[in-house]
Amino acid sequence: MHEVLLCMLEVDFGVFPELDAPELFALRSNEAVMKYIDRPRPKDLEDILALIRKMHQMRIDGVGITWGIYLKDRPEYKIGNIGLFRIIHEHYRAEIGYLLNPDFFKKGIMFEGIKAVTHFGFDSIGLHSIEANINPANEASRNLLTKAGFEREAYFKENYRFNGEFIDSEIYSLLNQTP
C-alpha cells in the first residue's frame, strides 16, 4: 500500500492560488484525468482561480470540503483531489468526487482516499450517506466504488447535458453503518 496524505484545502488568497493553481490546472486540463468528468475544462489559470474561490466558498458555506492528495514521501507534489460536496445538512447526505493524476491510476491511492474521506464524512461530520455520481462508461470508478462498499442506487438515462450531448448517470451510495 502507498502512504497517502489527505490535506484539507486551505485557502489563503495571499499565498495559496499561486502555489496550487498550476497543479490544479494541470489536473483539470488533462484529458485522461477528465475523460469521464463531464465538466468544462479550464482554459487558463483564471478559470482555476474561479474554481478555487468556489471551493473556498463551499467550505465557508458548509456545503463542501476538498482535500489535495499527496504522496507521503513527496508532500510537495499534488497528485489529485478528493472532496465531499453538495452536503445536504437536513438529509445528512453528501456527494463524493475525486480526480487523480494518471501516473497514479490503479495503485490503490484513490481507494485509500475514498476510505479516509468516507470515514471523515461519517465519523466527523455525522453523515448518514455518501453518494457518487459517475459516467456509466467509467468502469474504473465503478469498480473503485464497489470495492469501497458503495452500492448502485440508480441509473438515469440522458439526465445530464454536456457539450451538446445528453449523458446517462449512474449513482452509487454508501450508508453509515455506525449506530
Please characterize this protein's 3D structure.
With 179 residues, this protein is α+β, with helices and mostly antiparallel strands. It has one domain: 3-Layer(aba) Sandwich (Aminopeptidase). It is built from five helices and seven strands, in the order βαααβββαβαββ. It has helices at 16-28, 31-34, 45-61, 109-125, 139-147, and strands at residues 4-8, 64-71, 74-88, 93-100, 129-134, 151-162, 165-175. A seven-stranded mixed β-sheet has the order 1-2-3-4-5-7-6, sandwiched between helices. Strand 4 (93-100), helix 4 (109-125) and strand 5 form a beta-alpha-beta unit. Helix 1 (16-28) packs across helix 3 (45-61). The longest helix has 17 residues, at 45-61. The radius of gyration is 16 Å and the shape is globular.
Unreliable sequence segments: 6-19
> Based on DSSP secondary structure assignment, what is the total number of beta strands?
7
Main CATH class? Alpha Beta
Fourth CATH level, the homologous superfamily: Gcn5-related N-acetyltransferase (GNAT)
Q: What's the CATH topology label?
A: Aminopeptidase
Q: What is Rg?
A: 16 Å
Number of domains: 1
What fraction strand? 35-45%
Overall geometry: globular
**Order of SSEs, N→C?**
EHHHEEEHEHEE
How many DSSP H or I helices? 5
